[in-house]
Design goal:
Two copies of one chain form a homodimer.
Chain A (H helix, E strand, L loop, with lengths): L1 H22 L4 H17 L1 H14 L7 H7 L3 H16 L7 E6 L5 E8 L2 E5 L5 H12 L3 E5 L5 H17 L7 E3 L5 H8 L7 E4 L3 H10 L12 E5 L5 H13 L8 E7 L3 H14 L3 E4 L1 H6 L4 E2 L2 H4 L7 E7 L1 H12 L4 E5 L3 H10 L4 E6 L16 E3 L7 E3 L5 E12 L3
Parallel strand pairs in A: 3-4, 3-6, 4-5, 7-8, 7-12, 8-11, 9-10, 9-11, 12-13
Antiparallel strand pairs in A: 1-2, 2-16, 14-15
């Protein structure tokens, strides 16, 4: 069994590596034509996709899927259209491959250029939403990489059907058939075999819960782009506009509480606590957000419950907001760096100096000044579609799009130079 | 013992993390003043440094050091001056921290800026040359990072003395004393404890032999910037200028054979082999380079010895050059990607199209056209001092200077924006 898995993983990864060598020099126009044709074909294949998806839905109760999970699994006509539009959006983005990101001519006449190149082979691990199959394939191949897709077992029929559409179009447009491969079995042990192939796979991206990411990070013999929790903070400074602070805190927490860039903790400067917190308490009561506060918060917001240190270290992903009164911006920064996950923080203030200290002090991927934490997103930043939001500091931090799926190469042109 | 090591490592790394928080917002001028003052003090401390170095030299026979290793360990007046000049050169480089590398204003008025930030804490592992202590400290601290230096046991007295000079100056200039720390023991187990501190150390850089790098890459719970062998190639195309090809091949191999960007293999297009190889054979015979060739090479160069596949996969670091006749640029690229280490390749040709196919096909950090492989170097590329030449594709590829020791942060400025 283990030998079979080992052979299967190596075989798939070797094909991907070969495909990646060809893909690296495929022109943008060809890749974009493929993406647009794939979009059309997904639309045309709606019935087949729905039939394959039906098999997954029928098997879902056997996997003990919750109603919400079954809903995420379902390929409705709107979702198929959404996938197709997603491919067209990626086609419209600039190709990062070959982009010149630096260069100079040296005194000896050597012309040095630093360009972006594909990473090679990307192993992408994700959970139940089948539309991720199309998104991930589009981003990886547009950036010149071959991708090995390993979705959840609950979505295997759907993922295969989507990948067959993209793969079929690939061959017609002269892309290698193995540019996009779906792992044919969802055996957990098989994932481990892929994670051992540091010689063939250049990057693994796990998208899912913390335990999945931790397992992958521990086992992988290649780089891993990690996307951990967002324990995001809003700090209301003593010099904040109170109405703006309530609006930003509310939007950060409640506009879509189940996502990583939603706020989990509200920090309030002691100088403004007595004015701000009673109004904030009333606002959050009104929209059904449970506040869990420090002793000072409890004095000012009678409906709040007491918070523990664990609350401050928890990504609730629900209508629960931890609250703490802190002694100025330095204390806020200290709290953020101690309890946060380096994802997104926001300060509300009118004071330039204070905002600069907050921005400089927070060791996070994105720091907002007078704006909702919810804006930390590839689309909102104008970067186009994203493959995730990295909480790593290495290689890529924050929203990761096409550029983050590339490496670089120095190209040096001379006319016979040698070193003296 | 293990508990003591664990506590010691965590204590040092915690101090480094605290220092890194302060360092991240220290201005360039302060860091540059510190570097220049440290240079002066290294010069002034030449006698003390020589005395401490003498202790290491006295102990060297006990460690079984070769004569060459003892020579690398010796701090001569010229080498102390070299260290001082190195610090002054780093002071003169632009500070990467805060550098704006992207940005835009979004339709909703959000002003988005992407800036460089220090990584945090860097664990630097190196071998016997004590001047690396000053180089590494300068590059890490100039880029806003705290550094933990773990040199070889053979150089412990010298490394401590150098670090004491830099650390003493640090405090006077208002930098945290723990910006530069030397691991006080060279216990191998202690290294393992540091490698486990993924929560405190942001990057490990091992500089040394392959087995050291492999051990570090396997054990480290944080990113590792790897600098593996250079199995570099020169490909002489059918359309090459023969005299230029000989000069470039010769310089690539023999100008300094013991370094990673020296060539190990010469690939020769079958179209030019009969003209080029006899002349090249004569040239290399004349300068004492042993050729190990494929059967076709042996026909054309009677003095060559037969090469094995192992030769093509070996970094000789000596006056030995593997030679292979290949059928055009595609076969050359295939050989490079199969046997190479992704470090540096060079093509000699007059044909633009062929050069483009070689550049695009080689999956390497640097590809030269009509220039020696020896130019793959931070100084030669005009990047300033380098901490190594990465053979990784993730985060940094090729020569790594100050910029490669940073991460990024998105800073987003608004006036009350929330998501709808």
């Amino acid at each position: 069994m283990s030998d079979t898995n080992q052979k299967l993983a190596r075989d798939i990864a070797t094909k991907a590596k070969t495909a990646s060598r060809r893909l690296s020099s495929v022109r943008s126009g060809v890749k974009d034509d493929w993406l647009r044709a794939s979009a059309d074909r997904l639309r045309a294949a709606a019935e087949t996709l729905a039939a394959e998806n039906e098999k997954d839905l029928a098997a879902a109760p056997g996997y003990g899927l919750s109603e919400a999970a079954v809903d995420r699994l379902r390929l409705t006509p709107e979702r198929i259209e959404g996938m197709a539009v997603g491919l067209e959006e990626v086609a419209a983005l600039p190709d990062p491959v070959g982009q010149v990101i630096g260069g100079r001519v040296r005194p000896n006449g050597l012309a040095i250029t630093k360009i972006r190149e594909p990473l090679g082979v990307i192993f992408f691990i994700y959970e139940s939403r089948p539309n991720v199959t199309a998104d991930a394939a589009a981003l990886c191949v547009k950036s010149g990489n071959a991708v090995i897709l390993r979705g959840g077992k609950e979505a295997l029929h759907s993922n295969r059907a989507i990948s067959a559409v993209l793969g079929g179009a690939a061959v017609e447009f002269g892309l290698p058939a193995e540019a996009v491969q779906v792992v044919p079995s969802t055996d957990r042990e098989l994932v481990g075999e892929f994670l051992g192939l540091g010689d063939l796979i250049d990057l693994t991206i796990p998208r899912g819960g913390k335990s999945l990411i931790e397992r992958v990070a521990t086992e992988a013999r290649m780089p891993v782009l990690k996307h951990y929790d967002g324990i995001c903070h809003v700090y209301v400074d003593g010099d904040a506009d109170v109405a703006m602070a309530i609006e930003i805190a509310s939007n950060s927490k409640a506009q879509r509480p189940g996502v990583c860039n939603a706020a989990e903790t509200l920090l309030v400067d002691t100088k403004i606590a007595a004015e701000f917190l009673p109004k904030a308490g009333e606002h959050f009561d009104g929209i059904g957000v449970e506040l869990r506060g420090c002793p000072r918060t409890l004095e000012l917001v009678p409906t709040a419950k007491p918070a523990t240190d664990e609350d401050y270290a928890t990504e609730h992903l629900a209508l629960i907001l931890s609250v703490k009164v802190v002694d100025g911006v330095e204390a806020a920064v200290e709290h953020v760096n101690r309890f946060g996950s380096g994802h997104t923080e926001s300060i509300v203030t009118r004071d330039i100096g204070t905002s600069q200290r907050f921005v400089a002090g927070c060791d996070s991927a994105a720091v907002m000044v007078n704006a909702s934490t919810r804006f930390n997103d590839g689309h909102e930043f104008g970067l186009g579609a994203e493959i995730g939001i990295s909480t790593d500091k290495f290689h890529a931090r924050g929203p990761c799009g096409l550029e983050e799926l590339t490496t670089t190469k120095y190209v040096v042109r001379g006319d016979g130079q040698v070193r003296g």
